Amino acid sequence: MINLTVFSVERLRANAAHSASARVSHGLIQYMQSAFGLSYVAMASDLLILLRCLIVSATLEGPSRSRTKDSHQVEPESHRMTTSLSQSELPISVIIEERAKERLRYRIICGWMAVFLWVPLALGIVSGVNYPKAMNSVHDAQRERQLRYAAGATGLFFVTVIQVLIWYCVRTVRDVERTAVWILYCLATFLSIVSVYRIAVMHLQTDSLTSTAQESLNTTSSKVAFYILQIAPEWLVAATLLSMNMRERFKT
User: Residue ranges of region Disordered (predicted)?
Assistant: First the structure.
């Protein structure tokens, strides 16, 4: 949970923005612009890691254990006796080997998604570094806008793919701890709110950072929307995960 810890610390450090001297620091400006644009992507990567732990662990468990979890599925007594006898004759190594290809497939899928994660991260970092230049140059401002669109679009795509993968796993993966997977799905939904919000406000433009026009996002309603649609979901996801026993809940 390194990403979550860093997220919590950097949000506390962002309080330095209340300082008049800190607001003119290019380093702090670059840092804050990158952090606000990348936090939800970093947390989505944590959800991917937790999902990988759950589905891989599910392939390492015997089928008899899953039947004890799914208490809503009631089997006839004769069928349970026959099944338990046949399973007792199989060593655990054989049961694990049966799902080796399935386990490898899950690892490959999650691995490629982790590689794709670097696309929105790289775009977000470049966008944050370029931001101070955009305040004084029309050309850099246009490039900054393009970078933000690219980072936002790839971030939204990344979060959406994670949601689809979680939905697929909760519906199809045998023996997976479905309560934990549903928790991940709900948290991914909160992060998708952040990604959609960032895309939705990307088209707004202003010629002054101190403007109070509606499109400047400096109005009271705009700030309320920012805290509700970006800050609150991110904090909710971080607080939920940090309040849990990760090893027990997600089999890390």
Answer: 63-83
Give, to the nearest 10 degrees, the angle between helix 100-116 and helix 26-58. Answer: 170
pLDDT digits (tens, 9 = 90+) for 227-239: 899 889 988 998 8
Residue 63 makes CB contacts below 8 A (sequence gap 6+) with: 87, 95, 174, 175
Enumerate residues 6+ apart whose C-beta is below 8 A from 76. none
Interhelix angle 2-13/232-242, nearest 10 degrees: 130
Query: CA 167 to CA 186: how far, in whole Å?
Result: 10
The answer to whether 184 and 47 have CB atoms below 8 angstroms apart is: yes
Whether the model pTM is above 0.85: no
Taking only the tens place, the pLDDT of each residue in 132-142 is 888 788 888 88
Angle at 176 between CA 111 and CA 238, to 5 degrees: 65
Give the Cα separation of 152 and 187 in Å (integer).
18
DSSP-based three-state secondary structure for 205: coil
Q: Hey, what are 250's tokens?
A: 């997600």
**Which spans in the chain are helix H?**
2-13, 26-58, 63-69, 77-88, 92-98, 100-116, 118-134, 138-172, 178-200, 220-226, 232-242, 246-250
CA distance 52 to 137: 44
